[in-house]
Design a protein that fits this description.
- This protein is of the alpha/beta class and 488 residues long.
- Helix content is 31%, strand content 24%.
- It has helices at 31-42, 58-62, 64-81, 97-118, 120-125, 199-210, 230-241, 332-348, 396-400, 429-441, 446-450, 463-487, and strands spanning 19-27, 47-50, 129-130, 134-138, 141-144, 149-157, 161-163, 176-177, 191-195, 214-219, 245-248, 251-258, 261-267, 273-278, 280-283, 287-289, 319-321, 361-364, 369-374, 385-391, 407-413, 419-426.
- The strands form 5 sheets. Strands 1, 2, 3, 4, 5, 6 and 17 form a 7-stranded mixed β-sheet that branches.
- Helix 1 packs parallel to helix 8, helix 3 packs antiparallel against helix 4 (97-118) and helix 3 (64-81) runs parallel beside helix 6.
- 45% of the residues are buried.
């Protein structure tokens, strides 16, 4: 059952050899689409993937993996420059730009090749993948750019997202970079302007700075890396501003493409007029759903109606969304989970089943790292919430590593002590974020977590202080409530 790719044609299409029939058609063969295919086939559905390529997933080709390769090189350079703090003298640190980029592409290409070999290559060989661009004629009928048509019982859109370029920078031609093109540079530039201080801008901006590139990061707002918690955001802005040329609430005056680069005039956040020439401008101002060309306007689906967060379904239609195209949680593990949800429901349609979403977890691989877990600060009812804090400047293991900076804030229900979420910037945030996401998803209270083992000396044991303050506040609130009831 799970290996079928096509179903029998309807009587109306019998004479039309250009029509292919399937149970589920998936537009997009990235992380979401591949997981949707597996889930649909597990339900016994015939599935066709449609994608013009290139294959290999956004993560492996232009996202998670190449960016972490650049960051790894940058962190080694930074560690060498700061080794004297530990009594280790390494002399002058020299960064070989071509070698950095060559290693990045070599390993990146290996990740991509492995991903393709284990997924799309096998699927295409079995006839389950069509290399084509797709346009919806109806929610279940798809016109391909080779002239053929796919008729499905249900359709999944998993086309991912594309880089957004702010209007002032759109006419820079080959001087404009994105996270999809920056990794193709043969060497590191001398000067780089990064537009946007979100996760991509912060990661790549800091990496380039540490690799010796004179880098400026511009952000229109005062937000950094999507941090909503004002105390953590303030610590983050102060931390990165101390080591990078980053400016919030800047005023852009002009952008001019030159033969040898880009001239940018702006007023920085200190009200200083700047006139700078950069080799390239890297747009990191966010990404937008890749929905253009799908024909949604003709179907009355632009903009898309509300998508059911627990099913991936578009209204009551046999149409589902998964992955970055949803523009809700644009992360690989979320795309994979959404693919599973959409794939199962597309195969079962109209018997759509809601699925619980996993606890939110986002990590920024800057130094110090950033993690956002569960309920965000902007989603809290502060009157019924207690917040525990850990100042990493006071944490012993962080001091040992020379990384004693940052702040952790854990949110819990005042009445129950149940953990709701957390926001942090600090050492090992990728690991602390995972642990906190697990306990939030399990519905544990601060006291439950305090009963678990903490090893000494670790960064993790520092969480105990924040949990103890939550526990104490919950107990105090409970005593006050009992006293109030007794007095009444």
């Amino acid at each position: 059952m799970g290996t079928r790719t096509e179903t029998a044609p309807t009587q109306a299409d019998t004479a039309d050899a250009a029509v292919r029939h399937t149970d589920v058609a998936i537009i997009g063969a990235g992380s979401a689409g591949l997981n949707a295919r597996r889930a649909a086939m597990a339900e016994g559905a015939a599935v066709l993937l449609i994608d013009p390529g290139p294959f290999g997933t956004t993560c492996a080709r232009v996202g998670c993996m190449p960016s972490k390769l650049l960051i790894a090189a940058a962190n080694h350079a930074h560690a060498a420059r700061t080794a004297a703090e530990f009594g280790v003298k390494v002399g002058t640190v020299t960064v070989d730009g071509p070698a950095v980029m060559a290693r990045l592409r070599r390993l990146r290409d290996g990740f991509v090749s492995k991903t393709i070999a284990n997924s799309t290559a096998k699927i295409e060989a079995s006839g389950g993948l069509i290399r084509a661009r797709a346009r919806l004629l109806t929610p279940t009928r798809i016109q391909l750019d080779d002239g053929s048509v796919v008729q499905a019982k249900s359709v999944i859109i998993a086309t991912g997202s594309r880089t957004f370029v702010p209007p002032p920078y759109r006419d820079l031609g080959d001087r404009l970079l994105s996270n999809e093109s920056v990794f193709e540079l043969e060497t590191l530039p001398e000067r780089l302007l990064v537009v946007g201080a979100g996760a991509i801008g912060l990661e790549l901006g800091q990496a380039m700075t540490r690799l010796g590139v004179r880098t400026t990061v511009l952000e229109l707002q005062d937000r950094i890396a999507a941090l909503q918690d004002p105390k953590v955001a303030a610590v983050a802005r102060q931390t990165f501003a101390a080591s990078m040329d980053v400016h919030f609430h800047h005023q852009l005056t002009s952008v001019e493409k030159l033969e040898a680069g880009v001239r940018v005039r702006f007023v920085d956040d200190s009200c200083v007029a700047r006139d700078e020439i950069y080799d390239y401008v890297l747009s990191a101002a966010g990404r937008r759903p890749a929905l253009d060309g799908l024909g949604l306007e003709a179907l009355g689906l632009a903009p898309l109606p509300d998508i059911d967060d627990r099913t991936g379904q578009v209204g009551a239609l046999p149409l589902f969304l998964a992955g970055d195209v949803w523009a809700k949680r644009t992360l690989l593990h979320e795309a994979a989970h959404e693919g599973v949800i959409a794939g199962g429901n597309a195969a079962r349609f109209p018997d759509v089943l809601p699925s619980d979403r996993k606890t939110g977890l986002a990590v920024v691989f800057s130094e110090p790292q950033i993690a956002i877990v569960g309920r965000g600060f902007d989603q809290l009812d502060l009157a019924s919430t207690v917040i525990g804090e850990l100042d990493f400047a006071m944490q012993s293991r962080a001091k040992v590593m020379g990384e004693a900076r940052g702040l952790l804030r854990i949110y819990a229900g005042r009445a129950t002590g149940m953990l709701l979420g957390a926001t942090l910037i600090g050492p090992a945030a990728e690991h602390l974020g995972h642990l906190l996401a697990w306990v939030v998803q399990r519905g544990l209270t601060a006291d439950d977590v305090l009963d678990l083992p903490f090893y000494h000396p670790t960064v993790e044991e520092g969480v105990q202080g924040a949990l103890r303050s939550i526990s104490a506040e919950v107990k105090r609130a409970s005593r006050e409530q009992r006293t109030s009831i007794a007095a009444a």
